[in-house]
Amino acid sequence: MPTPDESRADLQLVTAAAVEDAQAVFATTSGAPEARRLQLLDTVPGLIGYYSDGSAALAADFYEETREIARARTAFQVTLTVADRVVKIRRGIAWAAEPLFGETGDGDDVDSRLAQVVQLETARPYRDTVLGNRKRDPDAIGWARATAGGCKFCRMLADRGAVYRERSASFAAHPNCHCTAYPVFRGGDHGPEANAMQYVASRRSRTPAQQAVLREYLNENYPDIPG
């Protein structure tokens, strides 16, 4: 069975392939900026959908294998979670195409933006599949974060092997974030429950005061890590 870090690396291969294909699509576009944007809008959502199915399937396989190793006591059917995000994806693609309308029509900027949108959206179903099944699974006590530790924010969220036991805990991610979630089951080896700051950092939105406290905490406790 792959480890959480190995499964994270597998997901990174999937997202990298999706980004490469999306950038290849952009390279074939031609015409006025409006026409090139339309070509991206017509093509990239379907491409993301294709790779999203693979991302979710990868998570489901990993979830099942982890559950089997943990010797879960109850029967459970793992399901894939691929949310309908077509509207948000199209907005992201339109944002990625904005540099085409500038004075230089910079294709490099479009490539960079497109990579952000495609990578984030392709990774999302993996994380959603783990978190969604964890909520339904009577033997799962929470989920933890596997990270390459590239930035202080992600390092803090994964520190100590923290287990997010609260069912409302969300998975915080940033552009080009290569972290993943993995399930934690009762009776197995795992870290302590996430602390208050880790729960605050995992929220989808934070108040300005919470953001200031979080930034101070990160700078104080992870001074040698970028981000």
% residues in beta strands = 5-15%
Low-pLDDT segments? none
Average pLDDT metric: 93
Q: How many strand elements?
A: 2
Radius of gyration: 19 Å
Can you list the strand order of the major beta sheet?
A: 1-2
Distance between the termini: 32 Å
Number of domains: 1
Which structural category fits the helices and strands? mainly alpha
Would you list the SSEs in sequence order as H and E?
HHHHEHEHH
Number of helices: 7
Percent in helix = 55-70%
Overall outline: globular
* Biggest pleated-sheet summary: 2 strands, antiparallel
Describe the protein.
The protein has 227 residues and is mainly alpha-helical. It has one domain. The protein is built from 7 helices and 2 strands, in the order ααααβαβαα. Strands 1-2 form a two-stranded antiparallel ribbon. Helix 1 runs antiparallel to helix 2. The longest helix has 37 residues. The two termini are 32 Å apart.
Write the layout of secondary structure elements.
Elements: H1 4-28, H2 33-69, H3 86-97, H4 107-136, E1 140-146, H5 152-158, E2 180-185, H6 196-201, H7 208-221
Helix pairs in contact: 1-2, 1-4, 2-3, 2-4, 3-4
